[in-house]
Task: structure prediction
Amino acid sequence: MAFDERAVFTETLETRPGRYPCPKCRRIGEYSIRWVRHSKKDRPPAGADAVDRAKFAKLRDYLLRLDDEVTCKACSKRFEIPSQQSLMFVDQFAGLPNEEDLEREINAASGEPEPAPAPDSKPALPARFTRKSTGWK
Ligand SMILES: [Zn+2]
Result:
């Protein structure tokens, strides 16, 4: 069966800053861009078989951009945001420093054991669901 996006993702609206150059006046402005965050649910939909579960395990959280264009703050021209930047996987942000990483570094520096894994790094499913993934790589 094909997954219904809404059965496996929770959608939440969020606003992120984006910096884009205006094609007319070349000035780079910072804009508030609306995105829909798709957060994978804790468990696969009811009635999912082994294949569905394996498929589900591979899904990643992602952000889909809602805004296609912005209005230049300098010259008021409307221009399109490059479309190749309309989808981002959440783990693309992993390289950016965040509070959890800082906390881990502080703990490492002070010789304390690592805290429990961060919520976004936990495996999505218990091993018994992913082991039977026949044909799914
Ligand atoms: Zn402009």
